[in-house]
From TrEMBL:
GO cellular component terms, semicolon-separated: cytosol
PANTHER family, per database record: 3-OXO-TETRONATE 4-PHOSPHATE DECARBOXYLASE-RELATED, FUCULOSE PHOSPHATE ALDOLASE
Protein name stated in the entry: Class II aldolase/adducin family protein
Keywords assigned by UniProt, alphabetized: Lyase, Metal-binding
GO biological-process terms attached to the record: pentose catabolic process
Chain ranges of the Class II aldolase/adducin N-terminal domain: 8-183
GO MF assignments: aldehyde-lyase activity; metal ion binding
Family annotation (Gene3D superfamilies): Class II aldolase/adducin N-terminal domain
Length: 219
């Protein structure tokens, strides 16, 4: 791979997510695409201690290009999402609240309770269950992510994609915050969802203000 820094970036992202409590032990995986290659955390790596040497580089066909450790067992999932969405980075976690919400019977999506969720695509789908590391799971998750930045995986965890590794990490952190919000509101009563009109008004306001983009003071 011509740019070894991508392995350092993937390792740093894994360590940050572990520090935030989204990656526990060896559970979860992080990847980033660089041209015709993908750098992904290796299988069995304790992600809180992830180093560049724990990140494996593969081709888009899944052939190992560099790295001493076999790639994550969810490699097929990452490659399928890259193929279907054209994204640049993917984070898969077993974050506590996201995983808990993904285990709720009958819940097919996380409703929009807070306007920040609209930046991820609106209601967040809960992809049906399939065995980890299977081609079936890879296809299900890729389909779920076509029109959204994040998804929950039934009885498994969560996944986020982004235009960059930093973007994917922030999306994963926001998804966990939203899952926590849903859990807390559900414990107090029926969550109050934003209506379609409220959502459209929020989107229009975000566009008008260029919300979330740093701006210079004009004094």
């Amino acid at each position: 791979m011509s740019d070894p820094s991508i392995r350092d970036e993937v390792a740093a992202a894994a360590r940050r997510l572990a520090a935030e409590g989204l990656l526990i032990g060896t559970s979860g995986n992080v990847s980033a695409r660089a041209g015709d290659h993908v750098a992904i955390t290796g299988t069995g790596v304790v992600l809180a201690n992830c180093a560049a040497t724990d990140v494996t580089v593969v081709s888009l066909a899944g052939d190992v290009v560099d790295g001493p450790i076999a790639p994550s067992s969810e490699l097929d999932l990452h490659l399928r999402v890259y193929e279907e969405t054209g994204t640049q980075a993917i984070v898969h976690t077993h974050a506590p609240f996201g995983t808990a919400v993904a285990c709720v019977s009958g819940l097919t999506s996380l409703p929009v309770l807070h306007y920040q969720q609209l930046g991820l695509g609106g209601a967040i789908p809960v992809a049906p269950y399939a065995t980890f590391g299977s081609p079936e799971l890879a296809g299900i998750v890729a389909d779920a992510l076509v029109d959204t930045q994040v998804a929950l995986m039934a009885n498994h965890g969560s996944v986020a994609r982004g235009s960059s590794l930093a973007h994917a990490v922030e999306n994963a952190l926001l998804l966990e915050w939203l899952a926590t919000l849903f859990h807390r509101t559900s414990s107090m009563g029926r969550p109050r969802e934003l209506t379609e009109d409220q959502q459209q008004s929020t989107v229009a306001q975000a566009i008008r203000l260029d919300y979330g983009t740093p701006k210079e003071n004009r004094t």
